[in-house]
Amino acid sequence: MKNKKIGLGILVMVFIMTAAGCNNGSTGGGSSAPPANTEPKTIVITGINGSSFTSGGLGIYPVGTNINIEDINEGLVAGANANNADKIVTNDSVTYPLYNSTSTNRWTGNGTFDVYFLYKEGTGTPEPYKAGSVSFSSATTTVAFSRFTKVTLP
C-alpha cells in the first residue's frame, strides 16, 4: 500500500510539473496566444486595373479615424508614398511595402486599422478611398479594391 501511495504521489507531482511547464508566462487563464508577427508588413490591393493605374499613396490609421486633408498626418501609423520605387503594379493589383510614419523604417505593427488609399487612374484626379477594419497579422495583407469606399475628405 505504501508503494501505491508513493506511486500516486509521483504521478500527481509529474502532472503538476507538466502543467506548470505549459505556462508561457502570460496571464489570462492559461491559454497561450501566438507571438505577434514582427516581420515588415506589405499590403496588396487586388482588383485594380493595373494598365490604367498611375499612382496611389496610402495611409494606415487607427480604426475610427476620420482624416482631414488639411492634416493628413494626424493619427497616421504607417503608409506608402505613391512614388515609392519598391511598389509593384501588375495587371490586377498593386503591392506596397509599408513604412513607419515617423521614419524610413519598415512598419512591423499588428492589429486592425483603417486604410485610406489615394487612387489615380490615367490623367484623372486622385480620389480618396477607405477600407475600414483591415487586420494586419501576417507579413502580407491582401485587400480587394471592392472593399474600399470612395470618401470625401474635409
Please tell me about this protein's structure:
13% of the residues lie in helices and 34% in strands. It has one helix at residues 2-21; strands at 42-46, 53-55, 58-62, 78-80, 88-89, 93-97, 99-100, 111-121, 127-136, 140-144, 149-150. The chain has two domains: 1-33, no CATH class; 42-150. The strands form two sheets. Strands 2, 3, 4, 7, 8, 9 and 11 form a seven-stranded antiparallel beta sheet that branches. The protein has 154 residues and is mainly β. The protein is globular, with a radius of gyration of 24 Å.
Features:
seven-stranded antiparallel beta sheet; globular; 154 residues; disordered N terminus
Short description:
13% of the residues lie in helices and 34% in strands.
Average pLDDT number: 78
Oligomer: single chain
Number of helices, where a helix is a run of at least 4 consecutive DSSP H or I residues: 1
- Order of SSEs: HEEEEEEEEEEE
Note the main sheet: 7 strands, antiparallel
- What count of domains describes the coordinates? 2
* Gap from first CA to last CA: 82 Å
Cα-atom radius of gyration: 24 Å
Strand content: 25-35%
Approximate shape: globular
- Unreliable stretches: 3-29
Give me the secondary-structure topology:
Blueprint lengths: L1 H20 L20 E5 L6 E3 L2 E5 L15 E3 L7 E2 L3 E5 L1 E2 L10 E11 L5 E10 L3 E5 L4 E2 L4
